[in-house]
Amino acid sequence: MTSGKKKNSIKATTVNKHDESSSSLALVHVDVDVDLAPIVSSYNEKIRPVLDALENLRRLNIAKEGIQLPTIVVVGDQSSGKSSVLESLAGISLPRGQGICTRVPLVMRLQNHPLPNPELVLEYNGKHVSTDEKNVSDAINTATEELAGTAKGICNTPLTLIVKKNRVPDLTMVDLPGITRVPVHGQPDNIYDQIKDIIMEYITPEESIILNVLSATVDFTTCESIRMSQSVDKTGLRTLAVVTKADKSPEGLLEKVTADDVNIGLGYVCVRNRIGEESYEEARNEEQKLFESHTLLSRIDKSIVGIPVLAEKLVHVQAMIISKTLPELVKKINEKLNNSLHELENLPANLSSFADAMSAFMHIVSLSRDTLRKILLIGDFEEYPEEKQMHCTARLVEMLNSFASDLQNSAESIGTKDFLMDEIKVLEEAKIIGLPNFMPRTVFLTLLQRKVRGVSHMPVNFVDDVWNYLETIITMVLKRHSENYYQLQVSTRRAAENLIAKKKKNSIQHVIQAVEMEKHTDHTCNPE
Ligand code: GDP
Ligand code: MG
After folding, report:
1. Does any ligand 1 atom lie closer than 6 A to the CB of residue 244?
2. Which residue from 120, 113, 118, 105 is spatially nearest to 72, judged by alpha carbons?
3. Model confidence over 230-264: pLDDT tens digits?
4. Least distant ligand from the CA of 77
5. pLDDT tens figures, 86-110
6. From 3.40.50.300, 3.40.50.10860, 3.40.50.80, 2.40.128.270, which CATH number describes the 9-61+68-340 domain?
């Protein structure tokens, strides 16, 4: 441990000597907190692979699977200085200024790398565009126009900027469009809601750290971004505040950040960003001077001022959320993976020969037959526990019962209604010479046949209903067993329909014949 610490401090001083002019981050790590330096540098080596892995997951759009990644999300009201803060951290120029500049989520991945020349790559819409410090701002604007159009609209498709640069902190952050109340010319009327939706989507997950950028020139309690972050992070435990423009409004800043009226759990850092055409080095020097010499600002504790302090804090916060969320993340990914593997196993094997296809087909037929036997004959519903419609034995009994009661309740079956009148009428028309007090057979036949005719449509309708029901069932069973084979699904369905149509026709013919026979006799041999 001791030797590790020593080694790293040496490394830090070497850096210091090596490049006197630069007051960049590594140097200030040494200045501000010598004890942290070894942790930070050894820690960079450890965190890098994790950040790489997270980056890859982000690229795979894992959020679509419902898995959230630990992310530092930059939010703030419009022109509060969000892009300026990111610029200061990365030491590169981003589009900034008045009005809405950031129109798509910008994922910024900072990566420390040893070579003197920075490497900048923009990734969006599956494209990788290499750029450099001078052109990055234009490249971002071009990409933004491609994603969100040339007007002032916004869009939720992220743009990734990878910045590999000497002595930047290893950090990944997402810059979001600033909150704006009033649509300007060319912006849709619901611009506020659109921006709010994007911001909420990013800050709602528990895995997000909210970097709330507040301008020193405003009253924090009136900040819309504070209201939004409070709505998802009531205790403030995952909110860190950066107060920009300390130079513009130094009065009362110390009181504002010590009073903490707005519940910032992770604390405040006051900064002064680059102004105008200053270089990043000049800006850091000016910032350092400002907080050292300004009468009011110098009273603010040094542990909460300056971009280097912010960088260090962010690196720690990032490590904290990653270590907190990683176990759960791994678990969720494994769960998803297992589910997907399971689905994969259930996918059909590749059928390359006629024999393979035939055996797959026979397998489907035999599975379907077994299922139909279970639900239609045995009354075993384990394959469809919740689907009442598929419980065929029970449904068929119900259909039979209802057919029986329809027959009983039909007008023809109600013996009392007009029966005597009908009988008298028929008797009058059946006057023949015959034995007295005996009803002539023709009268009985006429009455009976009239009733049989009255109900003769009912068995035919019943058979029709039963076959329609069976057709639905059989189609569903076949569809289920052949769901992995689309072509087969179409043709088995057609085959089933044809077969059922034939069977149905036979059944109906059979019933019609039976009914016809009943119409001609005065007795029945048919128990049904
Ligand atoms: P965003 O809309 O939140 O991304 O804000 P920008 O980063 O585009 O900044 C808006 C304006 O505020 C720009 O003109 C910046 O130059 C300016 N600005 C940002 N930070 C500071 C600061 O610390 N001091 C001063 N004086 N101006 C700043
Ligand atoms: Mg911006």
Report:
1. yes
2. 105
3. 999 988 899 999 999 999 988 888 888 888 878 78
4. 1
5. 889 888 877 766 556 788 999 898 8
6. 3.40.50.300
Residue whose structure tokens are 């519903």: 381
Give me the phi and psi of 260, to 5 degrees please.
45, 60
- The beta strand positions in 57-177, using DSSP E, are 71-76, 106-112, 119-124, 127-131, 159-165, 171-175
If phi > 0 it is left, if psi is from -120 to 50 it is alpha, else beta; for residue 407 that is alpha
Intervals of CATH 3.40.50.300 along the chain:
9-61+68-340
pLDDT digits (tens, 9 = 90+) for 272-328: 999 888 888 899 999 999 999 999 889 988 999 999 999 999 988 888 888 888 888
Residue whose CB lies within 8 A of the most ligand 1 atoms, among 75, 84, 211, 248, for a mutation test:
84
Q: What is the pTM of this model?
A: 0.62
Task: Return the structure tokens found at 365.
Answer: 């037929």
Decide whether any atom of ligand 1 lies within 6 Å of the 286 Cβ.
Answer: no
Task: List the 268-270 sheet strands across, edge first.
Answer: 127-131, 119-124, 159-165, 106-112, 171-175, 71-76, 208-215, 239-244, 268-270
